[in-house]
Amino acid sequence: MLSNIEFIRSAESNILGELLSFMNIPTYYPEGNIFVDTSNGDNPSSASRLTLPMYSQILFLVFFPTVALTARINLKMRAKFLLFGVLCFLAFIVTEFLTIATIITLGLNRLDVSFAQSSLFLTTLTAALIIELSFFLT
């Protein structure tokens, strides 16, 4: 899983970038990084670099295949755990999108610091809720 972190990061960045561009929030992708322009296009150099909490997300995403492979459960339950992993990945993207949209709506002009702190907290909270949901529903 750690060897595929670049694939996961690029997939997450592309989906997040498409969501942001759908909502008319200007985004840029130089050298694989996401930059979001909070100045409404007046000055593209004022774009804020987003640091996605990939390592904390990987810690949570590794949980689902590990349980699916090591638990003494049938194939249907294993598939459910893997689908909860996909749900968790999509929830991370939606959480990051909502965090960016909220910060921009609040009018904060330094998106990078606010996003880094709030996305780490919300990533942990979202993953914990989905792990609990996976245990209770399977």
Summarize it.
The chain is mainly alpha-helical and 138 residues long. It has helices at residues 5-22, 54-70, 75-106, 111-137; strands spanning 27-28, 34-36, 48-50.
Description:
With 138 residues, the protein is mainly α. It has one domain (2-137). Helices cover 68% and strands 6% of the residues. It has four helices and three strands, in the order αβββααα. A three-stranded antiparallel beta sheet has the order 1-2-3. Strand 1 and strand 2 form a beta hairpin. Helix 2 (54-70) packs antiparallel against helix 3 (75-106), helix 2 packs parallel to helix 4 and helix 3 (75-106) runs antiparallel to helix 4 (111-137). The longest helix is centred in the middle third of the chain and has 32 residues, at 75-106. The chain is elongated, with a radius of gyration of 17 Å. The relative contact order is 0.15. The model has no long low-confidence stretch (mean pLDDT 79).
What share of the residues lie within helices?
55-70%
Rg on CA atoms, Å = 17 Å
What is the count of β-strands?
3
Mean pLDDT: 79
Helical stretch count? 4
How much of the residues is beta strand, in percent? 5-15%
Distance between the termini: 24 Å
Order of helices and strands: HEEEHHH
The low-pLDDT segments are none
Structural class: mainly alpha
